[in-house]
Amino acid sequence: MNTLFPLLLSALTPIALTSVYVALRAWLPGGRQGNLHMSVLFGAAMWLAMMSSVHHGQHTIADMRGAILVLAYLFGGPIPAVVSLAIGAITRGWIGGPAAPIGVAVLATIFLGIVALARWRTLVPEPGAVSARALATMGAWASLNQATALWIADAAGPLLVIMPLSQFCVTMIAGGMLILIQQKTHLGRKLNEQQDLVRTLLVRDRASGLLNRTGFWLELDSALRKLSGTDDKIAVLLVSIRRLRNVSVTLGPRLSESLLTEAARRLEAVVKNPTLARFDDGTFGLFVMADRLDETVTLVDNVFAAFRRPFHSHGRDVHLSLNIGISSSSDDRDGIETLIAHGNQALARSVMLGENRLQVYDENIVVQAVRPMKLEVELRRAVETGNEFVLRYQPKVHLDTGKLHGIEALCRWHSPALGDVAPSEFIPVAETSGLIVPLGDWVLRETCRQLVAWRARGFAPPVTSVNLSAKQLLDGDFPERSLRCVLSHGLDPSQIEFELTESSVMTDPTLSINVLNRIKALGFPLSLDDFGSGASNISYLKSLPFDCIKIDKSVIDDLGASDDAEIVCKAIYGLGSAMRLDMVAEGIETEGQRSQLRKIGFTLGQGFYFSRALSADELAEGWLARGYRNRDAESAL
After folding, report:
1. What's the pTM?
2. pLDDT digits over 173-228, tens only?
């Protein structure tokens, strides 16, 4: 019995250690607390092993001190192993006896050997990974040290084999169990990580890291449930980034994705809202408490301000605009579908109103949204047939003589279903739907056809202007396609002038300059329309190959009634003169405006004072047949 008890106690200590290790790993945290608990565990095991082996003297045939050190280092780490070594050495010294120094030396030698073997990469390829090979090697080292100690202590012959062999066997059994537990734990951790990854992919956008549509709906649904039965309201903001599709078509999806990522970061930095989500290529959403109206207004202002700065990508400056639609819950019956639907309707209305616009949902939007939808359907059919559009021609005249200087071709649409539709209504629809490109091609073909028809009647029409949209400008094939159209009608490119607004150029200034230079190189004159209607970028204007600038009607309207208007006109005239550009004043409606513009120095004008937009026959009879002279205007000069 005296021999059996220490044998069982020493052999079962590492086995019991395994069970406690499993329990600790199941609920204890890592880091410093984990090291502390593992140190206590392995230290206690070392003390128990020392007391069960050394204390019973010659009756001991199983000594598990080496096994405890190996298991402590492999499964607990360096700190628990050092604690176990210290406790073992202190306990052995406290027990005393002539063999105490040998016992302490054996513990130290085993520990140093384990540390040296752990640095062997082929044995321990990565931290925390315990293999059977490492366990067997370190267990053999501990048993070899134990056999050496027994030999030095002149132990009986059978003990030289039994004690090291029993320690090695127990080390392998207990360590094998711990390896299985470790592998199972590692597998469970990997499965949890994979589940977390799947959940993340389900609710997160991979490119931006923001919530995706599904994640947004889940967050919004949770918020609505929490507010159920209260008076609190939620406002949903949908943000659409414009012009991304144009960038993707012209510059490629890689640059478009880069711009989108930068736009998402800028938006995230401004809103600082965890519910910010990316729905698709250029649409984002978030929700806030609706009762914080001032915070919502400030948030929207900050978003618009952030996107006024250009984006820098791959050596290009790209300007992106925004549209924002807002909807808010009115009562508990407003669910996710209602809020999102109202937000989309508000956003669609915002897009119809133009770039950088905010629209809050109200019931009138539903009625207002029906006509744009019908407009697009009818416009698409009209573009396909090409027989519902007509061109009207407005003269550009010399302010001194009233002689004809040029012509602007303007598109008009008479729909059998909708009647006469104003350009201010159908052009934005054509822009947003992409129909502006085929419509623009039709306008150019019809203008060329009409110039040929006038020539056939013996007239020599002056340069005729055609309006160019942003999407046409971003079409890489547009310059060559336009040249083919003009040459196929037997005309010279110098007879067709392209007019475009500064906002269309600023969609992508770098690309626009490149395309405009190609258009200019082919022989087409270029004119900058609506100059002075917004914040003009003079630095870009200097680099653009324009021949003419057209002063916007809004600048002319107050001329004669406001000194500021005259100052602005003089400033524009000075700028145009310095850049050696022709200048056309648009929207002249009175003799006073004509006279004051002439005094400032302008020589060319356009507006109802001279003529409204005319049909081809009216222009031929009233202007081309009279030697480029409008007699009514001339009599007033």
Report:
1. 0.52
2. 777 777 777 777 777 777 777 776 667 677 788 777 888 888 888 888 888 888 87
pLDDT reported for residue 58 = 46
Q: Which of 378, 281, 319 is nearest to 503 (CA)?
A: 319
- For residues 516 and 476, the answer to whether their CB atoms sit within 8 Å is no
Longest CA–CA separation in the chain, Å = 138
Q: HSE of 405 in the Cβ direction (CA atoms, 13 Å)? A: 17
The confidence band for 341, taking pLDDT boundaries of 50, 70 and 90, is confident
Among 280, 193, 185, 292, smallest CA distance to 234 is for 292
H-only helix segments in 28-130: 31-53, 65-71, 78-95, 100-118
Is the distance from CB of 328 to CB of 346 less than 8 angstroms? no
Q: 531-540 as b/e, with b when 16 or more CB fall inside 10 Å?
A: bbbeebbeeb
Six token digits for residue 314: 């791959």
With 0-12 / 13-18 / 19 or more C-beta atoms within 10 angstroms meaning exposed / middle / buried, residue 87 is buried
Please count the other Cβ atoms lying within 10 Å of the Cβ belonging to residue 403. Answer: 17
Task: Note the pLDDT of residue 61.
Answer: 43
pLDDT band for 445, please (50, 70, 90 cuts): very high
Rounded to 5°, angle at Cα 494 from 488 and 497: 95
Nearest to 569 by CA among 609, 608, 531, 528: 531
Rounded distance between C-alpha atoms, residue 260 and residue 280, angstroms = 10
Cβ partners under 8 Å of residue 440, min gap 6: 466, 467, 468, 469, 472
